[in-house]
Known about the structure:
By secondary structure, the chain is an alpha/beta fold. The protein has one domain (2-239): pyruvate-formate lyase- activating enzyme (Alpha-Beta Horseshoe), CATH 3.80.30. It has helices at residues 2-5, 22-29, 51-54, 56-65, 85-90, 106-112, 119-131, 152-162, 178-189, 195-204, 206-223, 232-243; strands at residues 36-40, 70-76, 95-101, 135-143, 166-171, 228-231. Strands 1-2-3-4-5-6 form a six-stranded parallel beta sheet. Strand 2, helix 5 (85-90) and strand 3 form a beta-alpha-beta unit. Helix 6 (106-112) runs antiparallel to helix 9 (178-189), helix 7 packs parallel to helix 8 and helix 8 crosses helix 11 (206-223). The protein is globular. Mean pLDDT is 89; it is low at 246-254.
Amino acid sequence: MRRFSGHLKDRWGNFVDVKVNLLDVLAKELPRRPGGSVWLSSVCDPYQQVEAKYKLTRGTIELLSKYPKFTISILTKNALVLRDVDLLAKMRNRVDVGFTITTFSDRAQQIFEPRASPVKDRIDAIRRLEEAGLKTWAFIAPILPYVTEIELESGLRQLADAGVKKLMTDRYNARGLIITQTLEAYRSWDPNCDVERIRQLLWKENEYYHLLDEKISELWKRIVPAGNYERDLDWYLHKKEAAGRPTASNSDHD
């Protein structure tokens, strides 16, 4: 997050700050906390390349494993999570692991998310985590016009075959200078694409997202009849509504 970290002049995706004191701080805080769900993580991938060196995510899981009052929800784009399957399997009853997938196209993935694990490796990681008894889910996000639609049905079937029952989606968050980099990626993907049309879709074309959302929802119903489909906005609004009720009830998502 460049505006909070002193990287306003740096190109997004080309820098990372390492919280080298994380484990020391966490070890002091955990005994004092009442418990709850720990999210790894909402802004920065917990299994990006530097994690192989610093092992902060692994250390975090080790610390949390000592406190049954905490559950863990992991969201990543990288198969490096398999390195920690030994720890995760021991606390499988309070862990879930999600994988973000923006596109099922190998070529598009290399352009739009070059530092993520190949999609086939992510799907294989889901399968191996399921075999280890862990609950997995998939997050189709951010939805990129035209790009996310490539090989969509076959990709959803691969997720289902790997064991995924829960699917979430979220649209692109058009903000700041990030959209400029996204449009550059579109030009690399297809030099003849209508960049202005794509810009319009990214910023405010709600009808496009509603139609694609319906398509994904119907596909998932057909592929995984007993599965669960949630839109990220639906989840947020439901949690917000539930927080204001004395007794929260579950809501069904189409």
